[in-house]
Design a protein that fits this description.
Largest sheet: 7 strands, parallel
Order of helices and strands: EEHEEEHEHEHEHEEHEH
Distance between the termini: 23 Å
Helix content: 10-25%
Number of strands: 11
Strand order of the largest sheet: 1-6-7-8-9-10-11
Radius of gyration: 17 Å
Number of helices: 7
Strand content: 15-25%
Length: 251
């Protein structure tokens, strides 16, 4: 699906916010920390000072950069795209002011020819402020759930007015059995990749797939992961799973 993004389930990325904070175990090996360090070295001011080196690895240090100059980028893209919002941060980070989140929603409301995918681990803040914004049908809202300990994020997502609600079950760090998929439209599952990637059991993925099939939820299997993720691919039991939510048309 990707065009100018290498992420398998989107076509483009838009980053009006830079920087983040490690919140839960799924953040430990986040690719965005390594990439932010490289982008800073390349001279991109948005990521300057957003990471620190510890144990020879880049880690978020909590600095958040609001990039006003990036807000209008989707309006310049005339052809329709599926856009992952803040692939390098979290729109609902506690240090992102409500006023700035409102500006991002304003752009998404204007650019109805695009589909925007917003993903957060800050599900409690999402639920707290969701009713402060106008949610057009072209905004898909998702939460990350890496293990059973964080399934409560799904209930927070369910409470929002988002037209399409999705789950990012990656990096999958443990089994997720008996998920409540009521009013969930899409689930993405995948293993961790890159240095120090943690292993994922195939049975964890199969369980999620089977739950999605039974519940009528679109399922996307992103990758098996590993240090060299391309070596292991993304075929699950003889096929690739690239399903998308049925409700894609913006109104």
């Amino acid at each position: 699906m990707a065009t100018n993004s290498s992420i398998e389930w989107t076509e483009a990325t838009w980053n009006p916010v830079g920087g983040c904070t490690i919140l839960s175990p799924g953040c430990t090996n986040c690719y965005a920390m390594r990439l932010a360090r490289r982008l800073e070295a390349m001279g991109q001011k948005k990521y300057a000072g957003t990471t620190r080196m510890t144990g020879g690895r880049a880690k978020w240090n909590g600095k958040i950069v609001l990039d006003e100059s990036a807000l209008g980028i989707p309006l310049k893209w005339k052809s329709s795209k599926i856009i992952f919002v803040n692939s390098m941060s979290d729109l609902f980070h506690e240090r992102v002011p409500l006023e700035f989140i409102a500006k991002v929603f304003g752009i998404m409301n204007q650019a109805r020819h695009h589909t925007f995918q917003v993903l957060t681990k800050r599900a409690d803040r999402l639920a707290e402020v969701a009713n402060k914004f106008s949610w057009p049908n072209n905004v898909w809202m998702g939460v990350s759930v890496e293990s059973q300990e964080y399934v409560g994020r799904i209930d927070a997502l369910r409470s929002t007015p988002a037209y399409v609600k999705f789950l990012s079950l990656e990096p999958l760090l443990g089994p997720l059995n008996n998920l409540n998929l009521n009013r969930i439209d899409w689930a993405i599952a995948g293993g961790e990749s890159g240095p120090a990637a943690r292993p994922m059991s195939p049975d964890w993925v199969r369980s999620i797939r089977d739950q999605c099939v039974e519940a009528g939820v679109a399922f996307h299997f992103k990758q098996w992961g590993g240090v060299q993720k391309k070596e292991f691919g993304r075929v699950l039991d003889g096929r690739t799973w690239d399903e998308l939510p049925r409700r894609r048309v913006a109104a």
